[in-house]
Design a protein that fits this description.
168 residues; mainly alpha; Chromosomal Replication Initiator Protein Dnaa, Chain: A
Length: 168
């Protein structure tokens, strides 16, 4: 406030400036019912919509690709900790709860740093939305159930301790 008063000199000068209103060009700009688009004309925006590539909802983090485990390594470790076959992790049946499969989806997405779509392909699902929903379920179950949290954390810790070669 002090800087504004110093600029105008006295409070009276400031008040006169504020009451005087805006410049005509500024008044005209705000009085117009339709302002010009900031990013360009409608023709340009139409061209971008038609020619532009559709972006994925997710973007993989390529800088971390070399340090991540393979999907196969995560699936084998999950199968070992949950005491099931790897084939059990690859197939699901409606109405049957498969905690190991859910944990595998969550850990593949997390540890392998894959998008939901890539994770869905690796676990034999058609819908990546189901993978996202399943991952949310696993996170909620970890918060509520210590046994579940311990098993998932065990897989995570064992995978993190291993040294990986990105070529295999």
């Amino acid at each position: 406030m002090r800087e504004a008063l110093e600029y105008f000199g006295t409070p009276r000068t400031f008040h006169e400036c504020a009451v005087a209103g805006n410049e005509e060009a500024l008044e005209a700009f705000y009085a117009a019912k339709r302002q010009l688009p900031v990013l360009g004309t409608e023709g340009f925006l139409g061209w971008v919509k038609n020619k532009g590539q559709r972006l994925s909802r997710e973007h993989p983090r390529y800088e971390r690709v070399t340090g991540r485990p393979s999907v196969r390594q995560v699936m084998q470790r999950v199968a070992m900790v949950f005491e099931v076959e790897v084939t059990t992790l690859m197939s699901g049946r409606r109405g049957e709860t498969n905690h190991a499969r859910k944990a595998a989806m969550y850990l593949v997405e997390l540890l392998c740093d894959l998008t939901l779509q890539e994770t869905a392909v690796h676990v034999g699902m058609e819908s990546y939305g189901v993978v996202g929903w399943t991952c949310a379920q696993v996170r909620a179950k970890q918060a509520a159930d210590q046994r579940s949290k311990k098993r998932v954390s065990q897989v995570e810790a064992e995978i993190s301790q291993q040294k990986f070669c990105p070529l295999f």
